[in-house]
Amino acid sequence: MVGCVQSYVFSCHIKLKRQFSKNKSKLRGTTIFIEEDFSNTVHKERMKLQPYLVEARTRDNFAYLRYKYLYIDRERLSLFELQASFSRERYEQPMHN
């Protein structure tokens, strides 16, 4: 069928899930996609964390997303922590006149 998307929800043993994740790269170039399935709330948080991820990587830090947390150099940070530290940095910067 052209234009149809069929999705499957896997609720299975963790070893089988890992095996799917490990082998999903073999499906590149096909019409089969395996993606993470997060709730709407978690998905929105991950989208908000994306700019922080890009910024961390441009500063040559080892950074990645896992669930709803951003790991920068093995330190786990939530969106709330990142927003708080960003606003604190802006407040503490000297004003240029």
Describe this protein with a few key phrases:
alpha+beta; 3 strands
Please sum up the structure shown.
The protein has helices at 14-23, 40-58, 79-92, and strands spanning 63-66, 69-72, 75-77.
Describe the structure in your own words.
This protein is α+β, with helices and mostly antiparallel strands and 97 residues long. It has one domain (14-92). Helices cover 44% and strands 11% of the residues. It is built from 3 helices and 3 strands, in the order H-H-E-E-E-H. The chain has helices at 14-23, 40-58, 79-92, and strands at 63-66, 69-72, 75-77. A 3-stranded antiparallel beta sheet has the order 1-2-3. The longest helix has 19 residues, at 40-58. It starts with 13 loop residues before the first helix and ends in a 5-residue tail after the last helix. The mean pLDDT is 78.
